[in-house]
């Protein structure tokens, strides 16, 4: 993709504008850190374009207030006060419909995760957001808590102009095959390899 130009022009009957404005399914997977960070960077670009942003975290603790969450909640306040950017909603375990890894059986967690996905599917049908960040969503897919084929069907048939970014390790191959853009992070070196724990401003 030299200078941002596509390497090939498909014979799909679409104009350059139509092809450029096609909504995407994006997958960030791999063993190394940075998958969510890259997704939130994309969300920042979308916010600046005035998009409605929906962030849905499936694994991180409700008690763990990550820096990105605080920043995006602040951006939502800025939007409400000044009209700058777009609205932001941030949902994670312990809030509303989302699920938590708390006391209960695996069946309880699976049912709650499935309900979380159903809420996202309802929002997609209603075209509630322009960009959906489904953070660490690969895990309930790999665990069988959410049906991969159902997710692929909803993503394939989603109406309007809605981008979806899914993050997490070990993305199912079916999801990778269906996505428009797939990034895989690979570890070359990490401070934890030499015994250093995560630190403020780097990991959270």
From TrEMBL:
It comes from Saccharopolyspora rectivirgula. GO terms for biological process: cobalamin biosynthetic process. This is Cobinamide adenolsyltransferase. InterPro entries: CblAdoTrfase_CobA (IPR003724), P-loop_NTPase (IPR027417). GO terms for molecular function: ATP binding; corrinoid adenosyltransferase activity. It comes from the Bacteria. Keywords: Transferase. CDD domains: CobA_ACA.
């Amino acid at each position: 993709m030299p200078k941002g130009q596509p390497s090939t022009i498909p014979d799909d009957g679409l104009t350059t504008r139509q092809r450029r404005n096609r909504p995407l399914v994006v997958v960030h997977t791999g063993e190394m850190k940075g998958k969510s960070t890259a997704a939130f960077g994309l969300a920042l670009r979308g916010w600046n374009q005035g998009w409605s942003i929906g962030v849905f975290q499936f694994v991180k603790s409700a008690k763990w207030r990550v820096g990105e969450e605080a920043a995006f909640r602040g951006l939502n306040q800025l939007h409400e006060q000044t009209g700058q950017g777009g609205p932001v909603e941030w949902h994670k375990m312990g809030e509303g419909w989302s699920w938590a890894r708390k006391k209960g059986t695996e069946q309880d967690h699976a049912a709650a995760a499935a309900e979380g996905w159903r809420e996202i599917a309802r929002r997609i049908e209603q075209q509630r957001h322009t960009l959906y960040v489904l953070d660490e969503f690969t895990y309930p897919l790999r665990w069988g808590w959410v049906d991969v084929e159902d997710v692929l069907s909803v993503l394939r048939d989603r109406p309007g102009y809605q981008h979806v970014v899914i993050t997490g390790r070990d993305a199912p191959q079916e999801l990778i095959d269906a996505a428009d853009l797939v990034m895989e992070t690979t570890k070359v070196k990490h401070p934890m390899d030499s015994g250093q724990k995560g630190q403020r401003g780097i990991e959270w």
